[in-house]
Structure formats: structure tokens, C-alpha cells
Amino acid sequence: MNYDELRDAWRRALAESRLSILGFEDEAIDLHSMGRCFKVHVEPLGGQRSEPFFVAATLSWQWTALQTMRGQLCEEDVLTTLLGRRASHIDTARPCLRVDVTLRAHVQRERALPMPGKEAWSRWAREALGRLEGVERLLPVEVAAEDDGGGVAILAWQDAPAVHLVCSPAGELRLHAVELSAWQAVDLPRRWDDSDREHDERPDGQLAALLARVRASLFAWMDVLDHLLPA
């Protein structure tokens, strides 16, 4: 699968998720490494319902020069190019793409809120993480698996919530934004010269499932923000 094929699959999955895109897709290429970056911002299904917070998710992925090579050539030719002719029959693992997801809720800097007390913050964190890890999961159920060498392969990961503060002219720290970062690995199909080899599964199902979880998680993220509002 090459970059254009993946981008088309991503766009189809995003359209089917019915998440609204904020602004435009952001595509960039690093002229030094020849890697590519794709990024898009989406808002919750149905729009904003958490004033004064504005809620959105940033979805992004990196496409390396090696992935470009594997997307354009068959695996046998990639092995020959990298390791020589004797390596053309070495078995390879499927390439994977790391999709980064960041949930964010922010207020305008001039409307930054008083910092919630310890109890209010604990209630928010408990409910937000409880929903994102249970009811409206952001990550798939399987986040790790044993690889062929007996090691553990991490398939997905979620960080703890982070807070962004602004300092008022009076020296008071006020709440500007909260965010939570996560990522998931998506398996991509290889391109084989040997027509007798079984074809790898396309990533369409994984992308659709990921974006469905993002859609549900965005709603949960928006729904618990009332704990952060002043009493």
C-alpha cells in the first residue's frame, strides 16, 4: 500500500465516521528525510456543546521514506535493494503505521478559568478516564501482543491527562486547556511479486474502528467538562 492509497482509505473512513473536519488537511514533506506528515483536526459529532470550552481532536500520522519504498516496490525487491540478492527470500513483517490522537478542550486565553480544586479535578479525572478506558474506549481492547521472537509488541498507548495554564497579571495560574494523547498502530498490507502468497488484509477495518472510537471518546471528553467549571 502506498501513501496515496492509504490517504484515500483514511478519507473514506473519516467520511463514514461523520466527524466534521476543522479547517483543512495538513500535509507536509520533510525534504531532508523525505518523510511525510498528515494531520487533520475534527470536532465532536453534532458540534460544540460545552461552553466555554471548545473541544476537538487532532489525528496525525507519519509516513517514512522506507514506507514509500515498500509501497512502490514488492517486498522481494525491497529486500534485494537493502540486503542483497541472497536476502530476497527472507520473510518480512507487515509494516505498521502509528496514528496519533490528541483530545483537547480549551478556552480562549482571555477567558481562562480558575484552577479547579483538588476534589473537582479528581472527579473530572476519574470520570474522564473511567469513560475513555471503559465505556467510550479510545484504545482498542488489545493494546499489546507477543511477537514472533517472544517479546511484547505495544499496539496502542494512552497518556495521562495534561493541563495547560496561563498566568494572569496578578500572578494567578488559570486553566487554559486540558488534553490527552494516545496512539494506535495500524497494520498495512505488503506488496509481493509472488502471486501465490496470501494477500495481507487492508487497513480499512482498523481505520474505521479507530475513528469510531475517536467519535465516541470525543463525546465523552466533552460530556465531563462541567467538573472543571467554577462552582
Quick structural gist:
The chain is α+β, with helices and mostly antiparallel strands. The chain contains five helices and ten strands, in the order αβββααββαβββββα.
Structure overview:
The chain has helices at 3-17, 65-72, 75-83, 118-135, 204-223; strands spanning 20-29, 36-43, 54-63, 96-106, 113-114, 144-146, 152-154, 156-158, 162-167, 173-187. The chain has 231 residues and is of the alpha+beta class. It has one domain. The strands form two sheets. Strands 1, 2, 3, 4, 5, 8, 9 and 10 form an eight-stranded antiparallel beta sheet that branches. A hairpin with a 5-residue loop joins strand 9 (162-167) and strand 10. Helix 1 packs across helix 5 (204-223). The longest helix has 20 residues, at 204-223. It is elongated. The mean pLDDT is 91.
Observed structural traits:
231 residues, alpha+beta, eight-stranded antiparallel sheet, two-stranded antiparallel ribbon, 5 helices, 30% helix, 31% strand, elongated
